[in-house]
Amino acid sequence: MVGIKDVAKRAGVSIGTVSNVVNRPHVVAAATRSRVLSVIEELGYVRDESARQLRAGRSRVMGLLVLDLGNPFFVDVARGAEQAAHAEGLNIITCNSGQRSELEASYLAMFAEQRVRGVLLSPVATSGEALRTFRRTGTPYVFVDRKAPASEASSVSVDDVAGGALGGRHLLETGHRRIAFVNGPAILAQCRDREQGLRTALAGSGAELTVLEAIGLDVPSGRDAGARLLGTSPRPTAVFCANDLLALGVLQAMVGAGVRVPDEMAIVGYDDIEFAAAAAVPLTSVRQPARRLGRTAAELLLAETSDTKPERQAVVFTPELVVRESTRVRR
Amino acid sequence: MVGIKDVAKRAGVSIGTVSNVVNRPHVVAAATRSRVLSVIEELGYVRDESARQLRAGRSRVMGLLVLDLGNPFFVDVARGAEQAAHAEGLNIITCNSGQRSELEASYLAMFAEQRVRGVLLSPVATSGEALRTFRRTGTPYVFVDRKAPASEASSVSVDDVAGGALGGRHLLETGHRRIAFVNGPAILAQCRDREQGLRTALAGSGAELTVLEAIGLDVPSGRDAGARLLGTSPRPTAVFCANDLLALGVLQAMVGAGVRVPDEMAIVGYDDIEFAAAAAVPLTSVRQPARRLGRTAAELLLAETSDTKPERQAVVFTPELVVRESTRVRR
DNA sequence: ATCGGCTCCTGAAACGTTTCAGATCGTGGT
DNA sequence: ACCACGATCTGAAACGTTTCAGGAGCCGAT
Prior knowledge:
homodimer, alpha/beta, 6-stranded parallel sheet, 18% strand
């Protein structure tokens, strides 16, 4: 492996000069610079990031840990974060906890060993324990898609209670009185909050709510929940799902059973992923600004890594209802 | 930042002993070991991966660079690769070139600076230039979703010509004679091969083929292509798309224009992503074993990094047609 | 001629590990 | 009493960078 020493020897300069050519080209004379550059080219020298980082004491990457990369929502979050990081010359390594606490812990440990510049985290549970290391070492971290008290860390989230209420009100307005909610694992704050928002919206309306908890937040879990839903009696006339993947699964179950959507069963999803609009029956969904979420979180994190220590803040975006065929009222 | 030295001092041992406790616990006496471990716990020592890697000369991570993480197909590829890597105690960092050569080059450069253990690459173009560094340094790389001559590198791919033919034959069998192909950027080998397979299948059948090149391989590009398709006259009766995202876009355009699928326009996609089955009209698609692709590629790479230098190989999987509503013949 | 102030370059220290040759100590065999 | 040996630990070197104090050479002003 060719190192800076080899380049220095071959170009007849000191290693300090080679380093300067690479990092502060202006301080070295033009003639020397071009000679060194051509040797670098000739030998195919590539600087060793680990040595660089060891010396610098901090790395040039940020860690991003999301709940589920199989959900296009988080892919968009990641895109937004990456965009913001690149704008500052930093790289992001994205990891997928798959909603498993032990994987989350293992990735966070990896981030710590890598001495990442900062961590973006959409946590499974509270994860207080796993974050101790970052707190002690002063590595900043920002919660994504989960609100946190500003005393602990900055966070960027979308108001899930409002989102749940948005879906609930919409179903009431479209005339439904027997409503089901297909929720994901209650360990996730998002799921709890959406359910709470829905309950609030339905309170006092006289509407009847059935809650089904799905195993996961994915399409198969949705199919499964859909099948259970078909077995309940009296059958609800509308179902609100904690995310679009679940909603797509429920929709498949309905289509498979010959239940007409929205006539016999209206469906509302959450996230408004790209595929919601392309579904068998285009899905009404609660839209979240995924990309913006990621970008803002990364920007907050970048601000915290700068020398000027800014205030921590909890940014909360507001979701928006997108009405499509799956809840359309037929006259 | 607490380092191995601090632990050593506090525990009253040498740094060598601390290192041994962490890396080869069996060589240190039980009493010492537990004393050191409790100091590690107390001080919150986390070893510095960059120093470790600098000393070791090689890292514990593999790089994976895919064409588009917005495509669930590649998310599955990444999952498969990650699974195989974890089984060997390695981490994977996944990056997204978004089909942009310059981003591809930049990520590959990053991999080189990180001294990754190996590289999994689904290349945009041939990228011969960018790979020179890896060739010189002996860093193994494996092509994913792209066949390569075994003389250059191992590769794991799916037979795209066969896949194109599969779709073509299916459309012929279901009675279509005016067929459109919505292709992605011709720079991608996958796109060229699928088109070629389709052409081969149609050859001599008397069927007429129209090829539209989409700007990207995503849903909006598909919508755009769909709109163009609606303007052609005589209008084809079937359209084959280079991937499912395009197909979903085309489908949206058809639904939006009131064109019935499959009666007035049959649609075949490619990849069989999860959302294909949940689409407005469930999509017939050419299925690829995405997860297996990633897993196999990672295994090949791992084998090449082991001391026993195995033969390079070009693994080629065979795609499979999944017939759904979008090409169903109505009687 | 001398000196201050440039510009350009050198050499060495430091970053936090791992590894390895050897030091030390106790034990059991002769 | 001596030796060989294993078990356990130490101390220093090495990995490839960046950084920084300072040295060398040169120019223009005094």
